[in-house]
Amino acid sequence: MKNQGTAIKVTKKARFFIFSFNFLIVNCLSNFNILSVRAASEEPVLTVVQSTENRQQWTGITKRLQAIGVNYCVVPLAQVKSSADWGDRRVLFLPNIETLTPAQAIALESWVSKGGKVIASGPVGSLSAPGVRQLLRSLLGSYWGFGLDETQQLKPAKTQPPRWANQSELFGQVRGGVIIPEGGTSQATAVWNAQDNPAAVVSTEWSTLFGWRWGTDAASSFELDNAWLKAAINHHLTAPSPGQQKIAGADSNCSTTIATASLNSPSPITPIIPIITQAPLVPRTSRSSSPEAIDQLEQTVRWNVEPNSNQPIDEKEAIALQQELENLISRVESAHLAASVQAANLNEAITINPQSLKEEETRVASTRPGLSIPSKEQAIAQARLVAKNIPQLIANKNYALARQQWLATRTNLWKHFPTNRRLAPAEIRAVWLDRGTIVRAGGEKKLAEVFDRLAQSGINTVFFETLNASYPIYPSRVAPQQNPLIRGWNPLAVAVKLAHERDMELHAWVWTFAAGNQRHNQLINIHPDYPGPVLAAHPDWANYDNKGNTIPPGQTKPFFDPANPELRQYLLKLFAEIVTEYQVDGLQLDYIRYPFQDPFAGRTYGYGQAARAQFQKLTGVDPLTISPTQGELWQKWTEFRTQQVDSFVAEVSQMVRQKRADLILSVAVFPLPERERIQKLQQHWEVWARRGDIDVIVPMTYAQDTARFQRLAQPWIASSQLGSTLLVPGIRLLSLPNLAAFDQLQLIRDLPASGYALFAAENFNNDLLKIFTSTQGKVSSGADEPIPLRQPFQTAVVRYELLKREWQYVIQNELVQIPAIKITDFNNQIEVVEKALNQLATAPSPAKLLTARASLTRFQSQFRIWMRETATNNPYQVKVWENRLATIERLLRYGERRSQLR
Transmembrane ranges (predicted)? Predict the structure, then answer.
């Protein structure tokens, strides 16, 4: 404490000296700052927050902190529950943290109110709930707008920059994103050297936000990162209350997380949070055989409402029941609004009339749930009553009745979706056309009937199963054997012709590292353990689990060893044959992963001959001898396997671009959380997206109800980690009621997604055909609808036009609360964006793209202000509009890459 007191006194003198002579020697003070004064102190002056999102960047972060010479504490984000948990150091650093819980955001607000200062970097909070994002915008005085696709020059703001941020070492080449200032106290401290000079760093009295991922070499240099952090720390430690060093009442104990940084430190600081968790991430099963990996995924998000169960309903489940009913009501209303503005007569009756609903509530208050209700308004009013009454039923312990009413109400709401009117926007409408359907077709005539049904229903993209269990569906010069279930015809050649005749995309869907299939063996009447024709010819290409099995217990497929160079060359040659011999529009990689594993249950995989030899050469250790308890070594083994998949995707991408620059590369992937997925599947598709290797990600978000589907899909739809790659969630039709499938489709349309994919054609029944034909089939005018994959800029125009029509409708019918004085400005800005999008779609150029993005970003920022009152009364619909604007922004990013407008 004595040393600390001395440091404070010295600091006060230093400040007095600086303030007194600043006008004479401002250019000489860059080497003298509060950090150098504190260098000898053992007291940390900074708290750095670590989370799962910045863990992989932690080495770069800690190296930079060491070089600055500042002592700091580390706080694991997962441990933050209250204001005190942020620590008592007066400056808090949030490097590249995109997800905070509501409790953590509220705790941060409380901590700042006590005098805390926040420095953040990257798209902070961008994956958090809407309320959290809004709170962070207020706290930081700004927010991440959108990422830049290439490196830009960082330069001082046009207006007089603050003195603390006017040093030459702060400006250089950086790859980051545009920061949107919000609030009168926000100041652009640095800007990007681009049109309109958008903000790159924004600061307030209590916060600073860097517009790049600090601590990552791909974003910024070591020296520039350090210069900015030093400047920001000094700024926040010297003003406005120099004597205050700690936050009163906060946790001062950082003995377990203290990481003393020094310029003389010999090595990077070891991350505080372990890389691998010891807890099992998927519930284990005692059955002798396990379901397929994708079925195990659904078990992790199971959300059942059993109709006759009288099991107690806890508070958390009660809230979930209410929330899901309210969300479903909003989806029904959103669907009706979309259907109404697409109708030829815009005066056609629509749903959202709060007054009529209020009157209807009274009229049907005595209606029994489950009774057939003749109108949509009555169904919505009844649903609101049921949602409102659920807590009372639970309080009276009428658990079975609460569940029965909930299920009956949900079914009744489903029936009131406008499934007889067109409502779909321009979007990717894909279906997996499976091997079974192809085989049953038996020839061109029957396969044409399949394509006719799909085209009639509005499907515009077909993932055609071309390679299954090492058997190509076509006669190949590369593969040893065509699928024996195909006789006398070439389904791939026929499918390409049929799709193109109907203006549909045809993408070859291929199994990548899954080498065989026991179920397929049964169909062709051979031994169940036959590994497939390729592994049978090349047994040294096989992969194994830790017990020496090629097929893990409870699974059905042997896998290739992705580390085997001969196997990789074979697959590349086979894929090249497909994309050069056939005019397919795309290639989709399936099974681009290792088999499902659970390391902490003793089930691991990846011990092929090539993999073991390569890893032993790299590390001197046979991977079979290590276990998940050996943290650092196991992490190296996991990274090694993950890199085999990553590098192969890059090779396929390079080959495809060389052979067919116009071809779309997509991947069918698991939507497990990133860290868990890497441990269990070694599938790191975020990396493929950020590198630009792939064009479309199709997560297999399969679930039997919308609540589960939303839990799987929404985090990835909302992710900002995917670069310019489009994301198209998958819906499994098997055992899914038709209206439940439509509900999941409506959820996708209300989120910032570019379309959907249905699994699979064999489950596409006549009732679905009727619903889809009405809601998304081709319009009678015969006008071609753009496909986002091919015409992203035109799609953006069409989708924006629908939004404009919705806004016109709700304004005309007084369904939004926008002050009259602002309506003119709102309408004018609508036209500005529409003009910019039309000019871009008509004649794309880098300048027009920049104009379109800038006008859209400005509009998005103002939109929240215009809709502030409406958001209070109808937050769901306002969020839907924001999501659709976000979809348009993503289409522009995708179009920029596909059109090479750089």
Answer: 16-35
Q: How does pLDDT run across 208-256, given as a tens digit for each residue?
A: 999 999 998 878 988 899 999 988 888 888 644 434 457 766 666 553 3
**Alpha-carbon distance 516 to 559, whole Å?**
7
Out of 370, 395, 414, a domain closes at: 414
Name the DSSP letter for residue 763: G
Beta-bridged to residue 464, according to DSSP, are 433, 508
**In this predicted structure, what is the pLDDT of residue 128?**
78
The pair of three-digit structure tokens given for residue 17, joined into one six-digit string: 């000296």
Residue 12 lies inside a defined structural domain of this protein: yes
> Residue 96 falls within a domain, yes or no?
yes
Full residue range of the structural domain in which residue 798 is found: 793-899
Q: What's the CATH code of the domain at 20?
A: 3.40.50.880
| Residue 271: count of CB within 10 angstroms of its CB | 18
Q: Are 125 and 7 found together in one domain?
A: yes
| Greater pLDDT, 868 or 697 | 697
**CB of 542 closer than 8 Å to CB of 601:** no
Residue 589: count other Cβ atoms within 10 Å of its Cβ: 27
Q: Is residue 731 part of a domain?
A: no
Q: What is the DSSP letter of 861?
A: H
Whether the pTM exceeds 0.85: the reply is no
Instruction: Write the CA distances from 767 to 451, 564, 668, 776, integer angstroms.
Output: 17, 47, 27, 14
**51/155 same-domain check:** yes
222 and 369 co-located in one domain: no
Last residue of a domain, one of 384, 414, 444: 414
Q: How far, in Å, CA of 456 to CA of 459, rounded?
A: 8
| Mean per-residue pLDDT, 274-289 | 28
Tokens of 33: 């700052």
Q: Which token pair is 723?
A: 């670069």
CB-CB contact of 796 with 891 (8 Å): yes
231 & 143 share domain: yes
Whether residue 16 has pLDDT greater than 50: no
Strand, coil or helix: 392? helix
As a whole number of angstroms, the distance between CA 129 and CA 100 comes to 8
Between CA 751 and CA 882 the distance in angstroms is 9
From the CB of residue 597, how many other CB atoms can be counted at a distance below 10 Å?
21
Neighbours of 831 (CB within 10 A): 10
Please tell me whether the peptide bond between 105 and the residue prior to it is cis, using omega within 30 degrees of 0.
no
One domain for residues 255 and 328: no
Please give the Cα distance from 692 to 897 (Å, whole number): 9
Residue 270 lies in a domain: no
What is the Cα–Cα distance from 871 to 868, expressed in whole angstroms? 5
- The count of structural domains within the chain is 3
Asked whether residue 252 falls in the same domain as residue 341, the answer is no
**Rg of the chain on CA atoms, in Å:** 29
Rounded Cα distance between 806 and 830, Å, is 12
| 50, 75, 627 from 267: Cα distances, Å | 19, 20, 26
Q: Which amino acid is at 90?
A: R
Band of residue 149 on the pLDDT scale cut at 50, 70, 90: low
pLDDT tens digit string along 374-400? 589 999 999 999 999 999 999 899 999
Strand, coil or helix: what is 775?
helix
Size (the chain), residues: 902
Same structural domain, 132 and 216: yes
Q: Are residues 212 and 324 in the same domain?
A: no
Q: Which residues pair with 49 in a beta bridge?
A: 75
